[in-house]
Amino acid sequence: MFYDTFMKIREAQIFSDKVVALLKKEQQDRGISNYTLAQLSGISEASISYIYRNQRHPTLYTLKMIADALNLSLADIIARVE
To answer: Which of 15, 19, 22, 45 could form a disulfide with 38 if both were Cys (CB 3.0 to 4.6 A apart)?
Structure first.
């Protein structure tokens, strides 16, 4: 049972990391700095940096804020990961 729970948590973390990687790539492709993204999203530049370095696992709310700041649909990003 512990192993099953651990694997579900790990799979969720991997999925989240893939969503973050796509958001980061979209940001880079658009030439938007972390500073600008912080201003657009209302999330601190430090938090964005931690998220992009996989030192923090963002909430769905945070992912939505980043996607909105990039004028992206979070649902579309998630669909691309699936």
So the answer is: 45
